[in-house]
Amino acid sequence: MNRRNFTSSIVAMGCLTVLHGCVMDASEPEADALGNHEQAELGYNPGAGWNLAWSDEFDGTSLNTGNWNVLTSNYDPVTNNCNFGTGELEYPRAQNVTVSGGKLILTAERTSDNPVDSRCTGYGARSFYSGRIHTKGKVEKRYGKIVASIKVPSGYGMWPAFWTLGANISTTPWPACGEIDILEWNSNDPTWMKSATHWSTGAQADWGTGASGNYNLADSFHTYEVEWTASSMVFRLDGNIVANSTYYHNETEFQQPHYILLNLALGGNWYGNPSPASIALPSGTKKTMEVEWVRWYQQGSSTGVSLTNPGFESGMTGWTNWSPNGTEAAGFSETYNGGHAGSYHLTHYNNASPFEVWTYQTKSGLASGNYKVRAWVRKGGAYDIARLQAKTCASCAPVYTDLGTYGSWTLVETPAISVTGGYLELGFHTRLSAGNSANYIHMDDVELIRL
Ligand SMILES: [Ca+2]
Ligand SMILES: [Ca+2]
Question: Is 320-450 assigned to CATH 3.30.2020.30?
């Protein structure tokens, strides 16, 4: 039974280490610093079972200092370092942190003032002003969904970030305090929400992932989130785009309260320490990182819709396999390599033979509203179709998420689907026209959530 080729690979990449070389793109347009203030802000629904524990909607005309501390130089008194340990080129100051039009605005600009903090004289003068705020001592929580609607500025050298540090950082210095990078963005990979974690194993330890919808994230608002539990972190872009890896953890760094940071850095080691002259921010111009809201949800009692045998522990009870070509038997429950929870999981597999199978469960009598399907998946090899999907009738067009390659169990979910007739079919549809023994797909712990 070694044919299903499951390998427990762990994706690791040091997101704060130096990336590839940097090429300045002088043709990039300037950010529209004042655009879109009159538009409705991005909506977000955390899903059933999540309750808002804290938020800042950035209403009013000034920063709520009950929530936030504002950095006023390139010396960070919390971490006791200069240039934030990453060689960034900016000198944060309060006047570059504003609230208006329902948004937090962190403004970066080039300066010839040559600002130097007296504690950082050995690092030379800074070339830019910018904004950096954090919630240390004011908002510190453990676990939950941390999410924000953010517009990052385009252009070489922009390094906006939405992240957390362990609240014990003053007594347990980085990286042993832990760090969760929900969003980091750089102009070399403009479609990517880069996410990472950092902790200590005695030495610095790093893990990274990313999410991309194949559209440039700069200069428009998008939602960036982490769903952080005691054992895992799932990163999402715009609600539905799930990062390509789930972080499974048990480190003490991620079992304690963290605080939130928002900042617009320029240059630094993620760009390979470029010269100030190379940063795409001409003198006399400004670029902004804008935040419509930041929210921290905590998990409450689940109000998900109950399913029959959602973890396949009772074989295929409650589930139906359909096939257009008589290969229904390619979908079955088994214990091979273990379940995400329990012993069993659903497998779609037919030992190197082509197949197509739609494993689904039906629900009737649902209240009208929007729903999502979630499930845990691991998958290797190429498929013609590999979808988690839902549809409101047998012949209706489905909503679905294409399943990528996941060496480890990974949480995926469908886009929202509107149910008005009370009926939903949900499950997994895969098709493999060319048999390949390297293909496998395992699925477990299906959830139906009313939004
Ligand atoms: Ca707002
Ligand atoms: Ca199971």
Answer: no
